[in-house]
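User: I'll paste a sequence; please echo it back and then give the predicted structure.

Assistant: Echoing your sequence first, then the prediction.
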Amino acid sequence: MKRITINYEIDNHSDVIPINYFIDCISDTTHWRHRKKEYIIKGGLIGCYIFYDENKNIIYIGKSSNCIRQRMNSHITAEPSQYLRKYEEEHLLMKRKHYKYFSYIIVDKQMVDFVERGLINKFQPIFNIEFNKTNK
């Protein structure tokens, strides 16, 4: 089987931002206007988001093909779905305890899957279980 390499340059990586900043903005939307412009996560952004631990080690990489802010909110503050299996709910709640910082990358919709997979393969985050199983 022929192996194909895709080169994709990312030059719009956000700063590493404290997770409390995101939680404050979600809980009080009036503060969005007063935040630094570069920290505002606008609705409808497509791309990858990265969660870090207290030492700024990458621990989870995810993607959103319609709204990064909404997808991150589901990881950080939303109640677990009633449809999750018990171990999935416990895993989600356990991960939240470790999220201390985040960043995001805006990516073209057709490339978001490739960029996410490439970042996961490069950084091997501990909470990307579905990829860690196949890589071992």
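Strands lie at 17-18, 47-52, 58-64, 101-106. Residues 86-98 form the longest helix (13 residues).
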